[in-house]
Amino acid sequence: MRKEVPLIITFLAGTFFIADYFIPHTGFSNIAAMVNGWAIIVIAASYILGVLNILRINYGRVAKREKDWILKLILVVCMFFMLGAGIFGGITEGTLFDWFFVNTFTPMQATMFALLAFFIASAAFRAFRVRTVQAALLAITAVLVMIGRVPIGESIWKDFPSFTEWIMNVPQLAGKRAILIGAALGAIATGLKVITGLERTYMGQD
Amino acid sequence: MQKFFEFISQLDRRIIFIFVALAIILPLIFPLNIKFTVTEPVRGFYDAIEKVPNGSKVLFACDFEPGSLPELYPMTYAALEQMLKKDLKIIALSLWPAGPPLAEKALTDMAQNEFKKTYGVDYVNLGFKEGREVVMVSMGSSIPNTFPQDYRGTKVSQIPIMQGVNNFKDVKLIVNISAGYPGTKEWVQQVQARYNIGLVSGCTAVSAPEYYPYYQSKQLLGLLGGMKGAAEYEILVNRIGLGRRGMDAQSMAHVIIFLFIVLGNLAYLSLKKKGT
Questions:
Q1: What is the pLDDT of residues B127-182, one digit of tens each?
Q2: Cβ–Cβ under 8 Å, residues B183 and B135
Q3: B232 with B205: CB under 8 angstroms?
């Protein structure tokens, strides 16, 4: 029964939601809406597991004074501080939570993202070497799109943006669409295998 | 020359960093005002909003976090400007945990301060709901059940703008600003295809190529790709915002990267020829 019950639940849930997509019946949709509500609650509950997991991982390291234990302590303290600020003070504009969000989280995350510009520049310098014909094609296309998609490209050649759009709309799109269709077919096949019980790795088995 | 190429081939990345920093900072201090025109996907975004009858309700999905702020905030503000000029009623939400405060700030700046609109009557921020695609599908059944309260904790049933809004049939368009997953791709797959509702997307430059198939198939009526998309859109909205101001810096940064790629390859080919 330890195998059969999850398989039956998976089969029923899978077929139900596929049917819901194609059956525009109010009664059916209402049941689907109710089950979706359950799903949202289950997903939200996973946040509690996430918090417990952070505590479990970091508590031991702090207690044993392992390397960088002070950073892990700061992580846990900050987590509870923000949790408390949000729960007791609210999260809207003007609250303590919002102040910390705007003045710490926002600039820190924006800074991390901004650093990408520097690393991409360095990586492009080293990676775009024309070692083979394929590498040369990649490098040339990348450079054309890179220049054509900023205003200076249009200053160099007025049709540069149109040319770049053509690259995006024809060769790029052909490749991307092929990948999308392939991935979608793969997802359908995997979904059907899970629903019919042929694919059972989600139960922790091979 | 040989020595120069050897120097280039072993170039310290910190030198590249300095050049990139200068290429970004200098044009921000001394603008070049390079002219540019509007591309088709951006015009599609603008036209789709223009076609919505004045005073209609639109869904504004702000699916991004502070990391994408510099790239996505300019188009968020420009989209708000166009929608507010048309007196569209904006129902904002986010499927990213850190999205609601950013949407709130943009709404306060534009709707409340610039256009003197009233919260709850002309616009609302429903906040964040965990569940990703499940939330989208759930909204198809009932938006009030999916978001029983707004970001400020007010019951949705007590908010005037939400009266008569039950599901996607009650909004005229979805405007999505997307930094990744969940975002535009999921809105297309779970909502546009299923409920046949108009959808436009503003996204990061790196994810724009992924959405071109949806734009060509008309599942997306318009597409803003990165800061350049935002800058083009600002021309249409007649707004001088962060997008247009950032274009010179982005142009120069791209030129610097281009020059380094060319130099790197010249050095590589030269040294390869000499068998070094």
A1: 999 989 999 999 998 999 999 999 999 999 999 999 999 999 999 999 999 999 99
A2: no
A3: no
ipTM of the complex: 0.82
- What is the amino acid identity at position B106? A
Each residue of A18-36: pLDDT tens digit?
888 888 777 888 888 888 8
* Domain membership flag for residue B122: yes
Is the domain of B26 the same as that of B108?
A: no
Q: Looking at the structure, do residues B118 and B175 belong to the same domain, yes or no? A: yes
CB B251 within 8 A of CB A152: yes
Residue ranges covered by each domain of chain A: 1-89, 128-206
Judge whether B168 lies within some domain.
yes
Tell whether B25 and B54 lie within a shared domain.
no
CB B156 within 8 A of CB B162: yes
Both B68 and B138 in one domain: the answer is yes
Whether residues B79 and B165 share a domain: the answer is yes
- Give the SS3 label for residue B222: strand
CB contact under 8 A, A117 and B268: no
Determine contact, residues B231/B244, Cβ cutoff 8 Å: yes
| B121 inside 8 A of chain A by CB | no
Residues B76 and B9 both lie in one domain = no
Tally the domains of chain B: 2
- In this predicted structure, what is the pLDDT of residue A94? 87
Contact at CB, B257 and A120, closer than 8 angstroms = yes
A157: contact with B, CB 8 A cutoff: no
Length of chain B: 276
Inter-chain CB proximity B37 and A161 less than 8 Å: yes
- Strands in B123-128's sheet, in edge-to-edge order, are B123-128, B89-94, B57-63, B173-178, B199-203, B222-225
Give yes or no for a contact between A139 and B261, defined as CB atoms under 8 angstroms apart. yes
- The DSSP-derived string for A163-193 is HHHHHIIIIIHHHHHHHHHHHHHHHHHHHHH
Q: Report if residue B161 sits inside a domain.
A: yes
Residue A17: which pLDDT band, with cuts at 50, 70 and 90? Answer: confident
Looking at the structure, tell me whether residues B70 and B91 fall in a common domain: yes
Which domain does B75 fall in, by range? 40-239
At A3, the pLDDT band (50, 70, 90 cuts) reads confident
Question: What is the Cα B22 distance to its own chain's centre?
Answer: 26
Is A154 in CB contact (< 8 Å) with chain B? yes
- The answer as to whether B244 is a domain residue is no
Q: Are residues B145 and B25 in the same domain?
A: no
Q: Domain with B195 in it: what CATH number?
A: 3.40.50
Of B17, B101, B145, nearest to A33 by CB-CB distance is B145
Cis bond before residue B182 (omega within 30° of 0):
yes
**CA angle at A185 for the pair A182 and A189, rounded to the nearest 5°:** 135
